[in-house]
């Protein structure tokens, strides 16, 4: 796919309501893509039956652009990025659940 075609398709795809984004972003920095992320996350579990051994791991996805939930981790080789925690099967390495760290949770505990 050419870069121009990709740009055209990207301009036509929308995942978020821009009118309400500002208000929602006050409570949730991850709001523009949260719905799409959660839909994808639901499909991981739907089509796979995990084994008996699972592990929780975290990954720093390298990113240096503008992002309200970008983190700095001095111990990692690439120090800036988006922190993703995941639950995966030990033997197949299949990811069952992912969660993006979007900063301190401002919502009260339920």
UniProtKB/TrEMBL annotation:
PiggyBac transposable element-derived protein domain span: 1-108
What Pfam families does this protein's entry cite? Answer: DDE_Tnp_1_7
Q: What is the name attached to this protein's record?
A: PiggyBac transposable element-derived protein domain-containing protein
């Amino acid at each position: 796919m050419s870069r121009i075609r990709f740009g055209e398709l990207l301009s036509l795809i929308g995942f978020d309501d821009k009118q309400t984004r500002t208000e929602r972003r006050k409570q949730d920095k991850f709001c523009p893509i949260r719905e799409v992320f959660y839909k994808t996350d639901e499909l991981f579990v739907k089509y796979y039956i995990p084994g008996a051994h699972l592990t929780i791991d975290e990954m720093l996805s390298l990113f240096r652009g503008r992002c309200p939930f970008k983190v700095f981790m001095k111990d990692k080789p690439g120090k800036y990025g988006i922190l993703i925690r995941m639950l995966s099967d030990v033997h197949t390495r299949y990811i069952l659940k992912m969660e993006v760290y979007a900063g301190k949770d401002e919502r009260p505990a339920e």
